[in-house]
């Protein structure tokens, strides 16, 4: 484990979003959250560390996966992730690394993948 990964895991805004069933509160509200789950890899860690620096983004590390969650929308810019990773990240490689997602995922162009938590916000893209 590298020092960067350890510090990212210890950062205060990286809270575990998973709760025990006894701690769940069920109500009739609509969530505008969105997110991705990625298998733990070099690419996934770089994406998580980069995205975790943004406001209103939550990163949760589990033994075999990394989850990135946001409110409203998450914007993944491949050129910015490539610079942080130190090698090319394409939208196709990003999608392969994403094992699952929630919210509406839109590949805007070859550089930008956006997840929308509010389904009405995605109408301009479909």
Polypeptide structure, described:
By secondary structure, the protein is α+β, with helices and mostly antiparallel strands. It is built from four helices and seven strands. Strands 2-3-1-5 form a four-stranded antiparallel β-sheet. The radius of gyration is 15 Å and the shape is globular.
- Percent helix, as a range, is 25-40%
Secondary-structure element pattern, one letter each:
HEHEEEHHEEE
Low-confidence stretches: 1-13
Would you tell me the overall average pLDDT?
85
How many strand elements?
7
Shape assignment: globular
Report the radius of gyration as a whole number of Å: 15 Å
Spatial strand sequence of the major β-sheet: 2-3-1-5
**Ends apart, CA distance between termini:** 42 Å
Helix segment count? Answer: 4
User: How is the biggest beta sheet arranged?
Assistant: 4 strands, antiparallel
Which structural class do the helices and strands define?
Answer: alpha+beta
Beta-strand content bin: 25-35%
Note the main attributes of this structure.
4 helices, four-stranded antiparallel β-sheet, disordered N terminus, 126 residues, alpha+beta, single chain, three-stranded antiparallel β-sheet
What's a quick, concise take on this entry?
The chain is an alpha+beta fold and 126 residues long.
List the helices and strands and how they pair.
Elements: H1 3-10, E1 33-39, H2 42-51, E2 57-61, E3 65-71, E4 73-77, H3 78-85, H4 91-97, E5 98-102, E6 104-107, E7 112-116
